[in-house]
Amino acid sequence: MWRLPLRRSVLLALALLCLGGALLASPPPAAPRSEAELRAFYQRACVGCHGPDGSAIGPDGKALKGRDLTELGGPRGPSDQSLMKTIQGGLFFGLSMPAYRQELSEEETLHLVRSILRKARKGEPIQVPSKLSASAR
């Protein structure tokens, strides 16, 4: 009769030990990417459809009907939350635009929307500062 509580105690102790080890072994959360790093992300992941300046005049922009990001402003434009949802979740099950939730945190996505995409202007490429582009090589 006393074996059942002892067995439960041993199993509980083992479970807590494993859980504690897993918590200690998990890496600390990474610091959010800087604006320069997010510009580099745009260059790598977005230029193909949205173009170097965000105007959708990229290699595949017209064929894939990439959205003109230089027209995001105004009262009828999409909200920051709507743009975040699109970037995080993609469009049409990832066929029209891939989801980037595995690559960008919500904080980084919001920073990308507010600091880079909302400020995109036709004819002004979204560039990576030369200091970061040289160190990325």
Short description:
The protein is mainly α and 137 residues long.
The residue-averaged pLDDT reads 76
State the low-pLDDT regions, or none. Answer: none
Kindly state the percentage of residues in helix: 40-55%
Give the class-level CATH name: Mainly Alpha
Gap from first CA to last CA? 67 Å
What is the N-to-C order of secondary-structure elements (H for helix, E for strand)?
HHHHHH
Instruction: Compute the CA-based radius of gyration.
Output: 22 Å
DSSP helical segment count:
6
Could you say what the CATH architecture is? Orthogonal Bundle
Give the name of the CATH superfamily: Cytochrome c-like domain
Q: Which geometry do the CA atoms define?
A: elongated
**How many structural domains in the coordinates?**
1
Determine the CATH topology: Cytochrome Bc1 Complex, Chain D, domain 2
Q: Main sheet?
A: none
Structural class: mainly alpha
The portion of residues forming beta strands comes to under 5%
Total DSSP E strands:
0
What does this structure look like?
With 137 residues, this protein is mostly helical. The protein has one domain (31-135): Orthogonal Bundle (Cytochrome Bc1 Complex, Chain D, domain 2), CATH 1.10.760. The protein has helices at residues 3-25, 35-45, 47-50, 80-89, 106-117, 130-135. Helix 4 (80-89) packs across helix 5 (106-117). The chain is elongated. The relative contact order is 0.15. The mean pLDDT is 76.
